[in-house]
Design brief:
The complex is a heterodimer of chains A (about 180) and B (about 120). Chain A has six helices and six strands, in the order H-E-H-E-H-H-E-E-H-H-E-E. Chain A is α+β, with helices and mostly antiparallel strands and about 180 residues long. Chain A folds into two domains: about 35 residues, no CATH class; about 120 residues, 2-Layer Sandwich (Heat Shock Protein 90). Chain A is globular and about 35 Å long. The N terminus of chain A is likely disordered. A four-stranded mixed beta sheet of chain B has the order 1-2-3-4, with helices on both faces. The chains are: A alpha+beta (about 180), B alpha/beta (about 120). At the A-B interface, helix 3, helix 4 and helix 6 of A face helix 2, helix 3 and helix 4 of B.
């Protein structure tokens, strides 16, 4: 086990129950293999698939909330997940070229949502930083909130765009225990 | 149903009321990247009218995201430039959760004794 810095510690604590993988394009495409569309291996058609731009953020959030609630997420976990997806959509509009696509799936265990954009990608420093922004910072909250308010989060980013997949367990009591004796 | 067909039930409203030298800005609906610029414009309007102590009443707010947090932080900075402040009060439910999670409760929470 290598020494863990402050960022790595945050990463490991989160990763124990919430795997958060980061993939840069350069790493993925060294061998010339195509970048995977998503790291979530789902064959089923999505429950919701919408392209969006700046003008549709609020309406799309309402549609997503209805779908996710119908899928079985409730209460604070529903509100958390809707806000997390909202942050990814907002990021796509603000930093990802002004538009994007959202897709939502439901499995027996989880609700999964993928937000993709065609922007210039997230820089490695920004991607590696899992710290909460200073409270008086205007900006930088979106990705941090999305990570805090979801159970799993995977970011694939590069010069051709960014794909963020987040998930929420439908039954959180069935989640992997935080520690096993 | 597509996003475009969804009614905008969360359309925000803003209303202002003076209490002494404090302007209370009451928000309802949802605060996101579509509506946050409206809040900042209202704060600018308060400052332009010569006031610089703004208490934002969130008791009617049902949603607040990072765009809302940014608007609170920027609004406080603009008030501070005039020697004043922006503080938050009345948040409940998920709005209170997001504000607490981000650490803004300590920074911008309204404490009447300290603020006056």
């Amino acid at each position: 086990m290598s020494d863990a810095g402050a960022h790595d510690t945050t990463y490991c604590e989160k990763a124990a129950k919430c795997p958060y993988d980061e993939v840069r394009d350069g790493v993925m495409t060294d061998a010339g293999s195509p970048r995977p569309r998503t790291v979530v291996p789902i064959d089923a058609p999505p429950l919701l698939a919408e392209r969006f731009d700046r003008s549709q953020v609020t309406g799309l959030r309402h549609s997503l909330a209805s779908c996710v609630e119908a899928a079985g997420l409730k209460g604070q976990r529903l509100d958390d997940f809707v806000l997390a997806v909202n942050e990814l959509i907002t990021n796509a509009v603000r930093h990802g070229g002004g538009a994007g696509q959202v897709r939502l799936w439901v499995t027996d265990e989880m609700v999964l949502c993928e937000v993709s954009d065609g922007g210039g990608g997230i820089g490695p420093d920004r991607l590696a930083n899992h710290d909460r922004p200073a409270p008086d910072t205007a900006g930088g909250w979106g990705l941090w909130l999305a990570e805090q308010l979801s159970d799993t989060m995977t970011v694939t980013t590069g010069a051709e765009g960014t794909v963020v997949s987040i998930g929420a367990m439908l039954d959180p009591s069935a989640a992997v225990p935080e520690s096993v004796e | 149903m597509t996003a475009a067909e969804t009614p905008r039930t969360g359309e925000p409203t803003f209303s202002a009321e003076r209490r002494g030298d404090i302007v209370v800005l009451r928000l309802t609906g949802e605060l996101d990247m579509a509506s946050a610029p409206d809040l900042l414009a209202r704060i600018d309007g308060v400052i332009a009218a010569g006031d610089h102590r703004v208490l934002v009443d969130l008791s009617g707010l049902s949603f607040c995201d990072s765009a809302g947090l940014n608007a609170f932080i920027r609004g406080d900075r603009r008030c501070a430039r005039e020697g004043g402040w922006l503080r938050l009060t009345g948040a409940h439910g998920h709005v209170a959760r997001v504000i607490a999670l981000s650490g803004l409760t300590d920074l911008l929470g309204y404490r009447p004794d300290a603020a006056s």
